[in-house]
Amino acid sequence: MRQAPSFAPGPLGTKGGMYRPLSEADIQRIHSAALDVLEQTGFKGATDTVRDLALGAGCKLDGDGRLLFPRALVEDIIDGAARDFVLHGQTPSNDIEVRDGHVHFATGGAAVKMLDSASRAYRPSTLEDLFDIARLVDKLDNIQWFARPVVATNLEDWRELDLNTVYACARGSTKHIGTSITLDRHVPEIIKMLDLMTGRDGGFAQRPFVSVHATTVVSPLTFAEDSSNVATAAARAGMPILSQTGPLAGATAPAALAGTLVQTVAESLGALVAINLVKKGHPVITSGWPFVADLRTGSFSGGSGEQALLGAGQAQMMQFYRLPTGVPAGMTDSKLPDNQAGFEKALTVTLAAMSGPSFVYESVGMLASLLGCSLEAMVIDNEMIHSIRRSMKGIEVTDASLSIDVIDEASRHVGHYLGNAQTLALMETEYVYPSLADRNSPDNWTEQGAQDITERARKRVAEVLSAPCPTHITPENDAAVRAAFPIRLDPKTAQGLDGRWVKGGN
Amino acid sequence: MRQAPSFAPGPLGTKGGMYRPLSEADIQRIHSAALDVLEQTGFKGATDTVRDLALGAGCKLDGDGRLLFPRALVEDIIDGAARDFVLHGQTPSNDIEVRDGHVHFATGGAAVKMLDSASRAYRPSTLEDLFDIARLVDKLDNIQWFARPVVATNLEDWRELDLNTVYACARGSTKHIGTSITLDRHVPEIIKMLDLMTGRDGGFAQRPFVSVHATTVVSPLTFAEDSSNVATAAARAGMPILSQTGPLAGATAPAALAGTLVQTVAESLGALVAINLVKKGHPVITSGWPFVADLRTGSFSGGSGEQALLGAGQAQMMQFYRLPTGVPAGMTDSKLPDNQAGFEKALTVTLAAMSGPSFVYESVGMLASLLGCSLEAMVIDNEMIHSIRRSMKGIEVTDASLSIDVIDEASRHVGHYLGNAQTLALMETEYVYPSLADRNSPDNWTEQGAQDITERARKRVAEVLSAPCPTHITPENDAAVRAAFPIRLDPKTAQGLDGRWVKGGN
After folding, report:
1. Residues of chain B with pLDDT > 90: what percent?
2. Does A498 score more than 90 pLDDT?
3. Omega cis (within 30) before A475
4. Among A228, A309, B83, B442, which one is most buried in terms of CB atoms within 10 A?
5. How far apart are CA B69 and CA B61, in angstroms?
6. Between A and B, how many CB-CB pairs are < 8 A?
7. What are the tens digits of pLDDT across the range B34-85?
8. How far is CA A51 from CA A68, A214, B275, in A?
């Protein structure tokens, strides 16, 4: 079995947009309704900063104290929003070019539990889990943005949590990092820590390799004070923002899917306006994450056909505005990486990705309606995404690929295409050979132990986690970070894995 | 947990066509190339009947004895082909309306092995397995056409195999049946048996509830004698035909995916021409089934991103001709109903269905690159298709569903949508509640035994197979069939399960 797919289905950032659940007329109607909601219903809970800037820009407060956004302001902000920017990796080879219609895959989540897939037991997630996940995701070829998937529940102090979360992500990964930050006053401290990692003042600002995930809106249509202040601080400090809102259809958003999209678009644009009022043209991934409630219980449910539609619909809406966006998918309700997890993830990730958002978040590793994370699921889902990216690459139609002469020759003579020059030329570039998915005959598979993919994944995870962990952080810079901040990741855990130091970087 | 989904995502025959991997220009180029291949490369191996009819209609034989099809003839046949017909169920409630763009799900396959999912052991499939599968599929709400998924390998005589295959399918199921037939002389015998089941001469012709799967073309571009003769006999006898061709990209078709589509279209149209020359306007499902070879081994591989593209592309091509068509999907390479099976099936079935063929075949139960079948996989895959059908139903955009007033009211007052009139009105019609997929919290799931979906499916299978088996065949008609033909299904096995007889039927 090959250890890694030999096939790259085009450069990372595959083009999407071939699946379009909403018609052009549908998009116009949802757009118009969202602007109505922004103008007539507006938001409650604006921070002082945002309210003052908004009133200065033409917004009004109604009798209930809700901040109403005039259409012209919203349209101006959309026009002036950042597009086509680079999100920096910790090493330059991991830079992400955010461009209209190009789809990238990211982790995501804030799970509080880890699954032991062999014993089927869940336990609280820790800082050490986060470090292991970072190291594992660093080896997953289809993932470009490492958003912290689990919360380090063994850290209770918010400042320590924020600092150590960023540290563990940066220490274990060389990719672009995303994480939430609890309070605005932690933003400058984190940037100081990131500067120390690079070994120079202003090192972070030169290549901002960490984005903050800011849920500035709580549904329905309410600004969240702490997150809004974090977003304001990040915008002022030059830290890119993943602006999130997570309306739950049937619970904190309408049960009608179109209504949930209207509210998601309104909330997404409201959050974008607030950030752009602080700093026009700041790099923002305008991510509405419309979720689905199981209406029997009111609980979040992530793996359904409704979820697949909402993700794709929201991606279409943000592309209508040409705004960089991300949607969540791959959020199975299963507690195990079983067949349910496989089909729920493939349905939602396939349709989300084909609809063309800039990012698909939560795309690997998550289980249990985002409450849990699994290392085995991460490597399995990465392989699934490889197949999905092959499908996204599409069918190349050229005079050569139409193969009229090849067909005539093969049909009239040898009667097959094995060993044909075209076959040999295309076998390494047009076909994916999976590394975990099994293609053996039943007899060979039985002889090799009759394993399921989770058992094979367990072996792969162990291989990765026992290997050295490259990092761009030199031992000297690491020591400086540890001297300045309360880093809780055992230095032996981190240092003992260092076989080598990656050159280059920030 | 609910025993069955309460939600029907629209009537069976959901509209497809929202995923379109080929552009209009791509379609035109593939169409033109396929007509070139039909005119310049043509087919070898035409039967005497087909050759004589074809030469009479303007075809030519070239120096290699290949039958060449002029463009005008192919276009005339396409124009005159059957569209918008009914495929009859064994009971009228199972009738299938074949209409442009409406997608139905079917079984399919000719597996020779059954999986025992608990012990992970494969064994040869039998007539009794086929009967059990028929009874199980009869209870799967998302499946409308029961094409025999396994071969009764315990029958060696071809005549007995053909007769007993149809018998076991008809005795266990009330849906439309599909099966292959080995030799043309078996066709009238089978129709005689089907007449006896209905209790009257001409009963089958009145409501033809069995289609023959005829692989009249062996790739590349060669008519198969026995199957062609079966198709000729079926057309003359009024039995609908699923016309199949199965080119294998990289082995019996070009490695270039566009080239495989060109050959698949040419083979599909060649087969359609041959049948229509025998009987113009005969009901045919023109099914090109482009498959993928793993080019490291030359073996068929069913679960890949390339397979997803080929299925969707072929569906688009046949819709271009407005021909009823079916494509295969759900053909995982995994040997177990594990996560690999889940994601490979969901990727291929989602994209095939969204592209809008009349039928998606092989859509439940198949494993091991079509070599194996699993009862547990059947019920799991049926649930997956329910979610996919929900996604296919799309997002309804109306003044009411845009929910502007609902959003304003909820945002200004209660702050949520639980118990909202709109939520209550939509919760039973717009949302799917799965019956096998788990949505419990990790704690509840652990308390309930920490099962995976395959374990839950095993219980469901046992429930269905221990229940009475309704049939439209009366005991008297069944006795008449058994008196006239060598039926090998133990009458105790079949009769002992009959708790009641379904009224109505043919």
Report:
1. 91
2. no
3. no
4. A309
5. 9
6. 450
7. 999 999 999 999 999 999 999 999 999 999 999 999 999 999 999 999 999 9
8. 10, 18, 73
Would you state the pLDDT for residue A238? Answer: 97
Among the partner residues A261, A408, A426, nearest to B256 by beta-carbon distance: A426
By Cβ distance, the residue of A294, A299, A442 closest to B113 is: A442
Q: Are A311 and A247 in contact (CB under 8 A)?
A: no
For residues B242 and B282, what is the distance between their CA atoms, to the nearest angstrom?
A: 11
List chain B residues with CB under 8 Å of A417: 220, 250-255
Residue of chain B whose Cα is closest to the Cα of A43 = B411
pLDDT in the model for residue B100 = 85
Show the tokens assigned to A295: 């209406």
Chain A CB contacts of B393 under 8 Å are 305
Q: Give CA–CA dist A417/A72, Å, rounded.
A: 61
* DSSP conformational letter for B66: P
pLDDT of residue A120: 98
What ipTM was predicted for this assembly? Answer: 0.96
Contacts of B31 in chain A (CB under 8 A): none
Test A452 with B336 for CB contact under 8 angstroms: yes
Task: Please check whether residue B294 is in contact with residue B256, taking contact to mean a CB–CB distance below 8 angstroms.
Answer: no
Read off the amino acid at residue A326: G
Q: How confident is the model at residue A43 (pLDDT cuts 50, 70, 90)?
A: very high
Asked if the Cβ–Cβ distance from A303 to B9 is below 8 Å, we say: no
Mutate to test the interface with A, among B117, B304, B317, B411 (most CBs of A within 10 A): B411
Which residue of chain B has the CA closest to A439?
B333
- The residue-averaged pLDDT of A449-476 equals 93
**How many alpha carbons lie under 13 Å from residue B7 in its C-beta half-sphere?**
24
Going by pLDDT thresholds of 50, 70 and 90, the confidence category of residue B500 is very low
What CATH architecture is A83-264+278-393? Alpha-Beta Barrel (3.20)
Q: Among A133, A146, A171, A164, which Cα is nearest to A372's?
A: A133
Q: Provide CB contacts within 8 A for A42, sequence distance 6+.
A: A59, A62, A66, A67, A68, A69, A221
Instruction: With beta carbons under 8 A apart, name residues in chain A contacting B433.
Output: 294, 296
Tens-digit pLDDT profile for residues B345-368: 999 999 999 999 999 999 999 999
Strand pairing category for A102-105 and A359-361: parallel
Q: Which residues of B touch A454 (CB under 8 A)?
A: 338-339
Distance CA A139, CA A287 (A): 26
B339·A344 Cβ contact <8 A: no
Give the chain B residue whose CA is nearest to the CA of A441.
Answer: B368
B243, pLDDT greater than 70 = yes
The pTM is what? Answer: 0.96
- The C-alpha atoms of residue B358 and residue B338 are separated, in whole angstroms, by 28
Task: Kindly determine whether residue B380 and residue A343, on different chains, have CB atoms separated by under 8 Å.
Answer: yes
Contact, A348 vs A370, CB < 8 A? no
**Which residues of A fall within a CB distance of 8 Å from B37?**
404, 407-408
- CATH superfamily, region B14-21+79-393: Trimethylamine methyltransferase-like (3.20.20.480)
How confident is residue A9, by pLDDT bands cut at 50, 70 and 90? low
**Burial class of residue A4 (count of CB atoms within 10 Å of its CB; 0-12, 13-18, 19+):** exposed
The reply to whether residue B441 touches residue A368, judged by beta carbons under 8 angstroms, is yes
Domain borders along chain A are 83-264+278-393
Gap from A205 CA to chain B (nearest CA, Å):
39
